[in-house]
Amino acid sequence: MSTPESIRSAAVLGAGTMGHGIAQVCAAAGITTRLFDVRQSLVDDGLAKITKNLDKGIARGKVSEEAKASALENLSGTADFAAAVGGVDIVIEAVPERLELKQRLFADAAGHVSADAILATNTSSLSIGSIAAGVPGPERVIGAHFFNPVHIMKLLEIVVGEATSPAVLARVQAWGARLGKECITVKDAPGFATSRLGLVIGLEAIRMVEQGVASAEDIDKAMSLGYGFPMGPLKLTDLVGLDVRLHIAEYLSEHLEEGAHFTPPKLLRDMVAAGKLGKKSGEGFYRW
User: Fold this and answer.
1) CB atoms within 10 A of CB 203
2) Residues 6 or more apart whose Cβ sits within 8 Å of residue 271
3) Predicted TM-score (pTM) of this structure
4) CATH 1.10.1040.10 residue ranges in the chain?
5) Taking burial as the number of CB atoms within 10 A of a residue's CB, which of 24, 42, 114, 179 is the most buried?
6) How many CA atoms, within 13 angstroms, populate the side-chain half-sphere of residue 55?
7) Helix spans in 14-61 (H)
8) d(Cα 176, Cα 254) in Å, to the nearest integer?
């Protein structure tokens, strides 16, 4: 098994909100990084967002011109799956929360990487063990749950499946530290730590709006000013995506023994059905 320092190359599958952010922090840490998506236009859009993030960092005095140039030199993008994953030390998937999609991607990736390459999933709620099912070498499958925006948020939630090897955990912990993240390690339980705790607060806030207890703005202000949350639960729901929150709530309500309090509120279902998905659609609990 390779040493922790041997993670020199990475493939990130999915160039959306999470994927391009993960690719950015990998490239900024000196790791040769390939960003993949199913269409070149999606890849190009992800790469453009990374450049925009770096330019914002320069404007704010957080990133130097040299650091931007170095990150972009380490970064490339492709819509060719084999070219993206071929020979890399770690594959990180950041695709939609569909179990069969993640399973298929990892099974395909396993045919293009070495036996000790790590397969890391950015899932926020799905079982690591289920994702690893059918993948050659399930001991190398692990959860690496980043937070949005990836280049700013400091937390990396590492999720250890039943088959995940201690050596893989050690390598991912070292990799996370290299990315500048504070790592926590949790077992493979529905919702892990962050999604389970964060979601229950978000769902209760939605119920309060539904019941007319207070406005979304005042509920968020209560949690920001009263409890020190950097962002209120409803604004965070808008950023995460109401459809994503709904999907996770449905999954947890089904898979947790005490899952009744994760039953999605009718307001959440209605807003998703109406296309009010949050920031990505322009409207959720706020207008963007």
Assistant:
1) 24
2) 242, 277, 284
3) 0.88
4) 194-278
5) 24
6) 6
7) 17-28, 40-59
8) 31
Which CATH number applies to 194-278?
A: 1.10.1040.10
User: CA 255 to CA 248: how far, in whole Å?
Assistant: 10
How distant, in Å, are the alpha carbons of 30, 39, 113, 155, 168 from that of 43?
A: 20, 7, 21, 25, 28
Q: What's the whole-number mean pLDDT along residues 97-117?
A: 95
CA nearest neighbour of 167 among 6, 15, 40, 30: 6
Long-range contacts of 205-209 (CB under 8 A, 24+ apart): 205/232, 205/233, 205/234, 205/237, 206/234, 206/237, 206/265, 206/267, 206/268, 207/265, 207/267, 209/234, 209/267, 209/285
pLDDT at 2: 44
**Block residue for tokens 């959720």:** 284
Which tens digit of pLDDT belongs to each residue from 128-170?
999 999 899 999 999 999 998 899 999 999 999 999 999 999 9
Q: What is the mean pLDDT of residues 179-197?
A: 93
CATH 3.20.20.20 fits 4-187, yes or no: no
Structure-block tokens of residue 42: 């999606």
Instruction: Return phi, psi of residue 18, to 5°.
Output: -80, -45
Reported as a single tens digit per residue, the pLDDT across 6-64 is 799 999 999 999 999 999 999 999 999 999 999 999 999 999 999 999 999 999 999 99
